[in-house]
């Protein structure tokens, strides 16, 4: 009977050791996976920040172009040259 108990204890001890190794390996892989995810998100964030800077620069250019299109000199030149209008004569 004691021989069976010793075998059961050895099996239980071996099972606990194997379980601990599996748990440790799982935790290690989880940590590596999380770190890889963080690095991937940091790369995406960097790409989005550069895209944001480009869009901001393009926005400034478009706002400047819009302002030039709505300037009174531009409208007057288009009216005179393209549409053939003339300035009113003062009497």
Report on this structure.
- The chain is mostly helical and 91 residues long.
- It has a domain at 28-81.
- Helices cover 86% and strands 0% of the residues.
- The chain contains two helices and no strands.
- It starts with a helix and ends in a 10-residue tail after the last helix.
- Specify the helix fraction band: over 70%
- Give average pLDDT, whole number: 89
Assign an overall shape: rod-shaped
SS-derived structural category = mainly alpha
The tally of beta strands, per DSSP, is: 0
| Low-pLDDT residue intervals, each spanning 5 or more residues | none
**Major β-sheet profile:** none
Strand content of the residues, in percent? Answer: under 5%
What is the element string, with H for helices and E for strands?
Answer: HH
Distance between the termini: 129 Å
Number of helices: 2
Primary descriptors:
2 helices; 91 residues; mainly alpha; rod-shaped
Note the topology:
Layout: H1 2-69, H2 72-81
Concise synopsis of the structure shown:
86% of the residues lie in helices and 0% in strands. It is mainly alpha-helical and 91 residues long.
